[in-house]
Amino acid sequence: MTTDELVENMNADLFVGDFKAASKSDALDSLTEAVVTGSDVNDRELVLGMLTNREQLGSTALEQGVAFPHGRSLAVKQLTILFARSKDGVDFESEDGKPTHLFFLILAPPQDTGNYYLQALGKIAELVRKDNVRQALMEVEDFDSMITLLKEAS
Amino acid sequence: MSGPNQAQLLVALQDLEEMIREAEDPGQRARLESLGFPVTGIEELRKALQALESKISPAMTTRYRRLRTRTGRAIVPVVNGACTGCFNNTPAVFTSSVNRGKVINCENCGRMLYWP
């Protein structure tokens, strides 16, 4: 997946620049609330349940303060990507034990047989592996700036 | 606040079964691990599956299992008024609030329907 294809699946209603959560479960709850508010995903309970189950399989928080809660559900109609940034950080059970600041929530329908959501996940993971990109994501002021940043980083 | 209805529980059950199936698939697992995501909690998911199944009536579970065996996906979303299992249109009355939360089967293929 190219960066252009990736950003086609992102939109300004799914940009949360001042995300706050007290714990991992609180973060999952608030991320779900944000995606229901900003997209055509309606079934909050199903999505939250799926994300909670997914975390039981293994934490989706990587090192360097980035997490990728993700999964498929029948409650999701299309690939949906939400970005949320926490200035304070959240204990999301990351491998290095450090707080998570950048969240990319990726949801897909079960009929995503081409594993499109894993391609999106892989592309974002590749981009945020760069220190300067993560640092810049902590500072971007709005959705458009984030998209410009991701395109320039590729 | 009321809890999830039977249709939501069945969707959650199928979502979870698919998550376990993917986690057990060597290719999918390798892909997740290569991205840095550990796949260590399959047993936890199996326990969650049992807990979820205990909330669904045995008769409904039996119907679900039969459909899983016969059609692959027992429950499918309705998109633009059509069952996505067989692409037959569903009667408008199915979307009535009276039916919300009820488990309704496609009149053509028999799969359970869900309105996302």
Considering residues with a beta carbon less than 8 A from a beta carbon on another chain, report the largest interface and each chain's count. A-B, 33 and 32 residues
How would the global form of chain B be characterised? globular
Lateral arrangement of strands in the main beta sheet of chain B: 2-1-4-3
Number of helices of chain B: 4
Summarize model confidence as the mean pLDDT of chain A.
95
Largest sheet of chain B: 4 strands, mixed
Oligomer classification: heterodimer
Structural class of chain A: alpha/beta
Order of helices and strands of chain A: HEHHEEEEHHH
Taking all Cα atoms into account, the compactness measure Rg of chain B is 16 Å
Strand segment tally of chain A:
5
Low-confidence stretches of chain A: none
Between the first and last Cα atoms of chain A, what is the distance in angstroms? 11 Å
What class, by secondary structure content of chain B? alpha+beta
User: How is the biggest beta sheet of chain A arranged?
Assistant: 5 strands, mixed
- Strand content range of chain A: 15-25%
Termini of chain B, distance in Å?
Answer: 20 Å
Order of helices and strands of chain B: HHHHEEEE
Helix content percent band of chain B = 40-55%
Describe the protein's architecture and organization.
The complex is a heterodimer of chains A (154) and B (116). The relative contact order of chain A is 0.20. Chain A has 154 residues and is α/β, with parallel strands linked by helices. The longest helix of chain A is centred in the N-terminal third of the chain and has 15 residues, at 24-38. In chain A, strands 1, 2, 3, 4 and 5 form a five-stranded mixed beta sheet that branches. Helices cover 42% and strands 18% of the residues of chain A. Chain A has helices at 3-7, 24-38, 44-57, 116-128, 131-137, 143-153; strands at 15-16, 66-67, 70-72, 80-90, 100-108. In chain B, 47% of the residues lie in helices and 10% in strands. Chain B has helices spanning 6-24, 26-34, 42-53, 58-71, and strands at 75-79, 82-83, 104-105, 112-114. Chain B has a four-stranded mixed beta sheet with strand order 2-1-4-3. In chain B, a hairpin with a 2-residue loop joins strand 1 and strand 2. In chain B, helix 1 (6-24) packs antiparallel against helix 3. The two termini of chain B are 20 Å apart. The model of chain B has no long low-confidence stretch (mean pLDDT 90). The chains are: A alpha/beta (154), B alpha+beta (116).
